């Protein structure tokens, strides 16, 4: 993400305006998408919004905050209500003086017995979902969104008051997201952050790459290591972005989402893919890895392969490609077939 040349105070004022806008009653999907693009301009923009959001939450009603047992409950005598403060702070006829939003927001912090509200809250404990090789799993989130975990996947979910954050540690998942303007939906996969607006999309984190494919809606893809603004990518239906985790480079292309999401129906689709890539991808589904012999590295494959069993994969590979599969205890070895007879 790039560094901003906009003055810090201007960014802070814009951040506060964005917080008030997205928490309003008339927020639209277009507003969330515009906010995503604004945040992607620089680290300073993202940090400023985070600070503004935290301060805004601290001015929310205390009844919405999880109390800690060691802090006394607030009473009418020791709580400054935000509504009271705003009534006392109506502008006079004199010219208004523009002040930093940080100072204004800090003045509005709700205090209970002199203890800042943030000390009475607890961090949201993540929920962990995972699958073993050969397994898939459906997960229904508290907001109504649905997540389908593919084989060998580990996912961490935090559903906070102001944000829904998923962290894909490894593997693949397909998401159907319920829109909530007041709770942005964020997926993190390594150094890649995805911001969603009521979308169906697929995320694969494997072999040093993060692949994002959109079926419907829009997703903003922001690699944390990106140095310039134009690397931030907003994907539409049929778009796919492949992010190299080491460099942050994004390769964008058009794909058929149905083919990418075919794993949900128990098979995978490869169209003119190098056999080495196919072997690497299939290795996610079974205990034994697939290793390609040097003589077969240049072979390309177009096929639909079931992933219900190792035996089915072996049979289909030999049917669709000029290879033999040698089964050993440690791996499945893909070797070139030098004659025209089918492998047995």
Distance between the termini: 53 Å
Describe the sheet with the most strands: 11 strands, mixed
Number of domains: 3
The CATH level-2 architecture of the largest domain is identified as Sandwich
Strand content: 25-35%
Please tell me how large the radius of gyration is: 25 Å
Shape: elongated
Number of helices: 8
Mean pLDDT: 78
The helical percent reads: 10-25%
Global structural class: alpha+beta
CATH class of the largest domain: Mainly Beta
At the fold tier of CATH, the topology name of the largest domain is Jelly Rolls
Low-confidence stretches: 61-99, 109-121, 226-231
> Order of SSEs, N→C?
HHHHHEEEEEEEEEEEEEHEHEEHEE
Number of strands: 18
Domain FecR protein: 129-219
Domain FecR N-terminal: 13-55
Protein name: FecR domain-containing protein
Pfam family, one: DUF4880
Give an overview in words.
This is FecR domain-containing protein. Residues 13-55 form the FecR N-terminal domain. This protein folds into 3 domains: 8-120, no CATH class; 127-257, Jelly Rolls; 266-336, Phage tail protein beta-alpha-beta fold. It is built from 8 helices and 18 strands. The chain has helices at residues 8-22, 29-39, 43-58, 82-88, 101-107, 257-260, 275-282, 310-320; strands at 111-112, 115-116, 127-130, 137-140, 146-149, 154-159, 164-176, 185-189, 192-206, 209-223, 233-235, 239-244, 250-254, 267-274, 290-292, 300-306, 323-327, 332-336. The longest helix has 16 residues, at 43-58.
């Amino acid at each position: 993400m790039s560094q901003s040349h906009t003055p810090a105070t201007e960014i802070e004022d814009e951040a506060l305006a964005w917080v008030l806008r997205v928490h309003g009653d008339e927020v639209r999907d277009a507003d969330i998408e515009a906010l995503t693009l604004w945040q992607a301009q620089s680290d300073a923009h993202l940090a400023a919004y985070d600070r503004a959001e935290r301060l805004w939450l601290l001015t929310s009603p205390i009844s919405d905050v999880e109390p800690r047992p060691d802090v006394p409950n607030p009473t009418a005598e020791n709580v400054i209500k935000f509504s009271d403060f705003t009534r006392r702070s109506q502008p006079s006829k004199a010219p208004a003086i523009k002040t930093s939003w940080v100072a204004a927001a800090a003045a509005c912090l709700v205090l209970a017995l002199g203890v800042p509200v943030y000390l009475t809250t607890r961090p949201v404990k993540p929920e962990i979902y995972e699958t073993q090789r050969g397994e898939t799993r459906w997960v229904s989130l508290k907001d109504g969104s649905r997540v389908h975990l593919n084989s060998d996947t580990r996912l961490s979910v935090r559903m906070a008051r102001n944000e829904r954050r998923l962290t894909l540690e490894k593997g693949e998942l397909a998401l159907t997201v319920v829109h909530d303007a007041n709770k942005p939906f964020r997926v993190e996969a390594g150094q890649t952050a995805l911001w969603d607006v009521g979308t169906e999309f697929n995320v694969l984190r494997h072999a040093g790459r993060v692949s994002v494919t959109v079926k419907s809606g829009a997703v903003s893809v922001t690699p944390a290591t990106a140095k310039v603004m134009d690397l931030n990518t907003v994907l539409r239906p049929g778009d796919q972005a492949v992010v190299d985790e080491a460099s942050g480079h994004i390769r964008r292309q058009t794909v058929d989402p149905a083919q990418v999401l075919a794993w949900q129906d128990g098979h995978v689709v490869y169209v003119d893919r190098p056999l080495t890539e196919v072997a690497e991808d299939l290795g996610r589904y079974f205990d034994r890895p697939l290793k390609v012999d040097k003589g077969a590295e240049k072979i390309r494959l177009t096929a639909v392969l079931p992933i219900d069993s190792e035996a089915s994969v072996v049979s289909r590979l030999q049917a669709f490609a000029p290879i033999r599969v040698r089964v050993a205890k440690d791996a499945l070895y893909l070797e070139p077939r030098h004659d025209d007879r089918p492998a047995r």
